[in-house]
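Appendix B.2, paired examples.
Example (i):
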Amino acid sequence: VFFVTYLYYIRISKNMHASRSSIVLLALAACIITVQGTHFRFATLSWQPRSATMYNTIDFTISVTWRTCMWNCSMPIGATQTFGIFMFGDGRNATINLTATAQFVSSNSTLGWTSGIGSLSYTYPNRTANYTAFQWDNARINNVNNNAGTPWRFSTLVTVGARVTDKSDSSIVLNRSPISNSLPIVPVVANSVNVFQITAIDPEGQDLSYALATSAQMGGGNFQGTTNTLTHPKGLAIDPITGIVTWNTTGMSLGLYCTQVQISDGVSWTVVDFLLDNQPTPSVCDVSCANGGSICTTASNCNTCSANATRCATSAAPTFIAPTPAAGSTVTFFASNANSLVVAGQSGNARVNVTIQPASTPVGAVWTSTRGSTSSSTLSWTPTPSQIGDYIITVTLYDANGVYYTRGQYSFVLIVAQDPSTTSAFAAATTSSAYSTTTSAFNSATTSAQNSVVTSALNSVAALALNSATTSVLNSATTSA
């Protein structure tokens, strides 16, 4: 990139009309591209019209995850950072500014990540037209098993002026995009059939459909003079109706893979781009052993066990317990009110601590956690009126040995609504009935993957430090916004 910049400088320096500012701007653009190289981990986005009259003004919400040390290894939650240029699809663009909302700390710099959320607004000149808005840059990480070092791209189809039937009351309303979320790195177990859910909602209750994204949607095509074709991991599939992802990792290389899912409401669509980490399942010493819960490879690694114990066996996975909201259920918070909910998890081994890890969470929301063999995290948030809207909350569990929740990730819907005490009209509305979610089939199904232990080395070194009973804020501190 800097070589190209240098050549450009030589060319324009010969042109007496070339301005010094042009050179500076190009160099800055080159720096942006260089900084983002190999740091991208995850992205999704959604949009909605500003109002019934300003419907060609579109408000975008963009969620991106990057390698923690991309800019600052000690970047605090709540800090803001510029993340390149977003294209509105009509030739115009704007800079994305993200607020850090979640982090995963790992001694492995490839696996540690920071998530941020940004907002952009744009008024389209045409009040009845479709535009594909996107960000397209270079490059995906070099040590991923598929599409290493290729460009990344995330996008959405903006349908300005399109109207649909709101299934909650049969009224005709302006269309809004589907909304989704995911862990930036979803853990899967090696040599097993893995099943996990992509949870999404449609604000008007339209039925959603799911598909693996095309090469072009993922970043394929001609980028900076090089043509790339991007692929999904071999054998990866998604149910077009339920959003359930299935992947048989038998014979697949260990490590990271990238993929992207398109979510459509039949009028517009969005995507969620994320990584998969394929790792083997560890064995641990029986809880009756003097070193119960520690990782073992043979029975001889386990000391002073009860006579009938299976000294070294596959570790049981941690599970979510009450009062965690049911997967795919809807929780309502009220704007300008102090709201909270609790997520709790239990280790599969009474002598091993478990951690609750959130994915990207709304700006201003705070996770406060306690850790032990049974752990809990409280999500506290006083959303502003401008944050009224719809969110997907996604979390996972992992224990100090790196053993993950069996289904990889766990999600539910969070609606921020106007306080009913402030308007009589609100009391008559049933907001949650408008939503189309796709997790119920997954929660009721019994799959072979539920009997396997999903594990990952996503914090295998640093996780040992999690055994102390501490309280920490895992998500964004409340900001002035």
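Example (ii):
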Amino acid sequence: AKNHVVAGYKFWRLMRKQNKVKRTHGQLISVRRIVEKVTTKVKNYSILIRFNTKTGVMNATKEFRDVTLCGAVHQMYLDLAARHHVQSSEIDIVGTTVIPDSKVIRPNIQQFLEKKLKFPLLHRARKVPKTQKAVLK
């Protein structure tokens, strides 16, 4: 969420939908942003979501590969906006987990799990030798 007010609103909206608990019957103790300790290692995240579409309510699990949970959630919002035309206000995150490489299901994530992964260099800019460079004075 953008700030703690929006986070509290999303929490109570999800509690009202799923557990039939209203804001008047509960109290938020704290709202904290999740900060990763190690942001140099890429992890696989599984995000369980619930969102509204034109035909009804959908439950889905999406897998993303990122260095932080916040980055994976951001990818999820962009992916749902592109593929399903879902606005971010209609998306509820039910749960998130870090999954090991052996339990990844989606093929678009599995293709990046190899240890010796190489990317092709499609457009290399060649260096011009000094003899061919023009010196402007």
